[in-house]
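Justification of resources, computational component.

The compute hours requested in this renewal are based largely on the per-chain cost of generating structure records like the one below. Each record pairs the submitted sequence with a full structure-token output. That output is archived, and it is also reused by downstream analysis tasks.
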Amino acid sequence: MQASRAAWAGVAAAAVALGVAELVAVATGSRSAPLVAVDAAVVDLAPEPLKQFAIAVFGVYDKIALLVGTVVLLAALAALVGVAALRRWWYGLAGIAALSVLGVAAAVTRPGATWTWALPSLVGGASAAAVLYALTAAPRPSREPRPDRRWLLLTFGAAAVAGVSGRLLRTRRDVEAARAAVVLPSPREPRQAVPARADLRVPGLAPYVTDNRDFYRIDTALVVPQVDPDTWRLRIHGRVRHPIELTFAQLLARPMVERHITLCCVSNEVGGNLIGNARWLGVPVKDLLDEVEPLDGADQVLSRSADGWTCGTPTAVLRDGRDALLAVGMNGEPLPIEHGFPVRMVTPGLYGYVSACKWLVELELTSFAEVDAYWVRRGWAPRGPVKTQSRIDVPRRGSEVRAGPVTVAGVAWAQHVGIARVEVSVDDGEWHEATLADTVSIDTWRQWSWRWEATPGRHRLRVRATDSHGVTQTEERRPVVPDGATGWHTIEVTVR
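The structure output for this chain reads:
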């Protein structure tokens, strides 16, 4: 038997393992599937520089890149297992067993896991062993190559059918229908009216309100949690006098407010697009905290997601009067599932990693001295206030424009402080004050524009913003770790 065919037999066995595991995960939960569990463990264990490199290179597609990379690596390992089985069947069996143990270990150590989460990897591994034996070791007529192409094609076909069936069955169990049935309540206060001059409508400039489909998504969830609103519960407990538990219906029955709030990811590089502005409907967090009455020393509200992810928010920030919300609506519709349905937290002025827990199921009053949240344990700052930043959207970096009047435009933000001034510099010359668009509040970004009389040649444009306290953003370039990037956004353009 040729080594190449043995390698393909190993890959076919691995494909069957993944397909069967997907079917089993229909019953045990999507997060128990070995590919998902292993990748989730990789996300948790990967060094911080590697995570930031992935976000910088792949952006919102970092999870897809990880899944593809894992599949490629698994295929390579499976091919080696197949070749090993060609020498001794037990070598191949040992390789399958090792990969199965890896899947089991990754699954059962995930937050919220039960013993049943081991089943997809175990059943998938057993299936892989059977397929590998059939393709490499089972007795066959002497003239029949082992395995022939027909058997390989049938094996890959069976794996594909199993995997796709598992995905389709899990799709039927999702909550999209329940989300579509949600009727959002009206806010207790009139909606914030967006001023006519809040959106300059310059081609290429980010709109004042970000469409839900375009809103950035950065989180650790490789499989989007499917949380049924009928069974959803929110526990507010810990160092409080009156712990409570709420159903989704009870939360919807509470007085709600609607606010435009800009959210920004701490991984957003200078000039990056991991930021967006939306209209959020929700219950003020302050009202809930006042009801449970935090005890002395409870200076942190630890938010926990349905998949076990945590973030810690200063209690004082959530009670200082800003519009921190347990949001149920986004831009006039129930939260998209990818953005936290049925409930997420939104907090103006703090980066999302300390304030914007999606798929929220728990608020625990604790202290920063007692508990470090997910990203804090990995070296990020515990409090994470958003830094004043500005960005040039138009013209694009490296573009060509015609000589004469050119509109330079972009956005600037200093959530819960507000933007007072934006300035643009050409070729490191004097600073020119841009025209600011209107805004709903200090909790959102502001558009700006400046008319530039462009002359032929290569030019360098820089932008800086000053907040409402009179503090101008620093020129010093700093990376996103540990508490957000700094520096002036700079681009080069060619004028013809």
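Confidence is low (pLDDT under 50) at residues 142-146, 168-172. The chain is about 30% helix and 25% strand.
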